[in-house]
Amino acid sequence: MTDQSDPQDTTPGELRSPFSSVPIEITISVGKARPLIRDLLKMGKNAVLPLDKRVDDAVELYVGERLIARGELEELDGEQQGQLAVRLTEVADLQDGLG
């Protein structure tokens, strides 16, 4: 049996699998709000819902319910100017989670 791997491929062995090219959805959490139901029912257009985070606080990245990383929001430049992105500052050990 011959090795069919690409000699230019620098992907670690554990990442070379049929599943490595399957896209996943990552949810970015910027904060939570906990209004009373009566206050929520009164809200309309242009209402402001305060979050438990500040603008410069870290955001959290989740796959499903699992926290996988933290990062900082930033705006892209160039052709993608105005688009939001996340710069990772902390990445979970997927075996043990994020501390």
Note down, in words, how this protein is organized.
A four-stranded antiparallel β-sheet has the order 1-2-3-4, with no helix packed on it. By secondary structure, it is mainly beta. The radius of gyration is 20 Å and the shape is extended. It has a single domain, classed as Roll (Surface presentation of antigens (SPOA)). It holds the Pfam family FliMN_C. One of its GO terms (molecular function) is cytoskeletal motor activity. Belongs to the FliN/MopA/SpaO family. This is Flagellar motor switch protein FliN-like C-terminal domain-containing protein.
* Structural domain tally: 1
Mean pLDDT: 86
The computed structural class is mainly beta
Supply Rg.
20 Å
CATH architecture: Roll
Helix-residue proportion: under 10%
